[in-house]
Amino acid sequence: MISSLVIVFREMLEMVLVVGVLLAATRGLPNSRKFIGLGVFGGLIGALFFGLFMEKMEDSFDGEGEFVFNAVILFLASILIAWTVLWMSKHGREMSENMKRVGSLVKEGDAPYTALFIVTLSAVMREGSEAVFFLFGAAQTVNEDGWSLFIGGLIGASAALLVGSLLYFSLIRIPMKQLFTTVGWLLMLLAAGMASQATWNLVVIDWLPPLVDPLWNSSSILSSSSVLGELLHVLVGYDDQPSALQVIVFIVSLTIMTILYRRLQTRSVRS
């Protein structure tokens, strides 16, 4: 029971936080819930598929297939989240002034619906597939009946949904004019963290050099396996023992997004 609770909570935490931030960021955007919902549905189907075939996927690329898969998904999600942030910086002012005007933006085809769908799908599929795989492994190795695993998984899923809901309701309490700035920075940190995590997956399999590994060790202060450490890992890519390359990728990604975000905000205000 405990094993399935921890597995499901840990794997679901990232997907519910990502979905919660996206829901808050696109509050009032027509059809955004539809595309996020489709992403969740598609991600669940993909998670079941990849979870059942995870062992075969791991055997690909000389046994490193899972790391390659995670890296590709994370890099893709990072790029699409960054694109969503830049779209928000361009249209956030109009959206905060009059949400009815968003309809015209949607008709122009500027709304990042494709990004919303793919980011949601990738988050749910990646974490969900690992949850399915680990649960099957736990069922075979842990001396527990199916009901105990099911109840533990249900409690873990409920706890993750509670954390995600708290984040979402905290964000939507922010006044609309400040919401886009707050969520914009949160999404940029999320995207930079995903790029850093993708880098970690490639460093582990020696596809990229770590430069210095680890650059520091803060596990005695805040372990990545703690609840707070897990939250920070999801939201900003926190790692208690990161390589130098991970930190560089995080800083460079965040810097580039910040520069572009501020420039587009300035143009939006001037226009």
Q: Assign the structural class, choosing from mainly alpha, mainly beta, alpha/beta, alpha+beta, or little secondary structure.
A: mainly alpha
How many structurally independent domains?
1
- Extended strand count: 0
Instruction: Report the portion of residues in β strands.
Output: under 5%
Overall outline: globular
Which sequence of SSEs, written as H and E, runs from N to C? HHHHHHHHHH
Poorly predicted segments: 98-108
State the share of residues found in helices, binned by percent: over 70%
Query: Gap between N and C termini, in Å?
Result: 57 Å
Largest sheet: none
Average pLDDT number: 77
What Rg is obtained from the alpha carbons, in whole angstroms? 19 Å
**Total count of helical runs of at least 4 residues:** 10
Task: Report a brief summary of the structure.
The protein is built from 10 helices and no strands. It is mainly alpha-helical and 271 residues long.
Describe this structure in words.
Helix content is 80%, strand content 0%. The protein is an all-alpha fold. 44% of the residues are buried. The model is unreliable at 98-108 (pLDDT under 50).
